[in-house]
Amino acid sequence: MLPFENLNRDPDNAFLADGVQADILTKLAKIADFKVISRTSVMQYRGKQDLRQIGRALGVSHVVEGTVRRSDGKVHVNAQLVDARTGTGVWAEEYDRDLNEVFAIEVDLAQSIANRLRAKVSARENLAMQERPTSDLVAFDLYTRANNLLLSMAASSTRKADLLQVVDLLNQALARDPSFFLAYSQLASAHDQLYFFGFDHTPARLALADAALRATSRLRPTAGETHLARARHLYWGYLDYDGALAELKVACQSLPSDPQIFGLMGFIQARQGRWQESTANLERAVDLDPRNVDMLRQLAFTYDVLRCYDDEKAAFDRALAVDPNNVETQVARALVDPISKADTQPLHRLIDSIRITSEKQEALVVPEPLEHYSVAQAKTKTEKQAPRRHRHVARPRPNFFKKLVVGLMKLQKHQSAKSSRKGDQNAQASGRIRAK
Hints:
This protein is an alpha+beta fold. It has three domains: 1-132, Rossmann fold, CATH 3.40.50.10070; 135-256, Serine Threonine Protein Phosphatase 5, Tetratricopeptide repeat (Alpha Horseshoe); 259-377 and 386-431, Tetratricopeptide repeat domain (Serine Threonine Protein Phosphatase 5, Tetratricopeptide repeat, Alpha Horseshoe). It contains 19 helices and four strands. It has helices spanning 14-29, 39-42, 51-58, 102-116, 123-130, 137-153, 159-176, 181-196, 203-219, 224-238, 241-254, 259-271, 275-288, 293-305, 309-322, 327-334, 336-341, 345-359, 400-435, and strands at residues 5-6, 62-71, 74-83, 88-98. Strands 1-2-3-4 form a four-stranded mixed β-sheet. Strand 3 and strand 4 form a beta hairpin.
């Protein structure tokens, strides 16, 4: 389900196109007979038109593309289903309706795609496709903006600010529609991330996550999204591994194509030392979200623990194909050969490359490392210490790889200088011998 193109000149209308695409994707992802690729991976193909190449990269047989135009209280939506193996169109549909009928269009499109692909749709799945996120278009726009931020932040250096902005956008959406179920679910997740990653590891932040989760549960107690939100909360808020895994097991029954479920299972099982199960779930998550760099790196690290070095290198190579300038991934990839076969040449080449780059820059900026491999980081002197029972924070260590590379560069420089001095001493000794 590729990003829908916004045909309006006003970029603010792009959020309507994103929202339409996201809601149709969500509906289709609830059909167990489908394998639906996550928005994290497909959003990277915005504006790209080689559908056969995109199909191969994502490992799918069919692609849906479309356009959205909004004008004078009307919305025009065009969608096309394409066989990605041949590039030929299978089905197309156009809608020209009142703007307040946009959610009805999404339902029609999802059902038409399922019918055209002859999917087996259960009564429960058909009922789920009928659900509309909200009746308030402004609230829907605010929610879509927040959702796009959550997708794009990853390990960004502005992650705290992004999460706070997400909270603000979702609160605005909920002020307009207090029954907006998906907004409450995402709000609980944003609060939990602020708490777990140490940006605001306080009882007050955890209480906000608790409140958002209670609202989620009140609106749709049996929904897959509710079980997923509760799993995240149990893990990020309370480190309750078994409780979170039990919720995820229920969630995947109604959200079979949600990579977050399998990724979270993999993270938790890694913390428990259940490496084979962790690897299987992370592989499933990557299958559904093949261009998610964080997920690919997590998978690579589990391969490392199992000493599956060829698989580890392949996972890092896939991550670098998506984000070739990521220093953390470059270093992790270069460390595989020294560990697996005592070959230090790839690491030396990377150090030489980084030295050249760092000489042109004032600082080496390295993204935050991955969440379940990070440890608690000491607070700065200006920060107030939290009560002891709130100090367990899985905070990232953004300087770890920088320090590793800088240390190796210093060692290499020291060895070069030592070799140079030894060469000078030998040359001087040879000169003395010739003089005699």
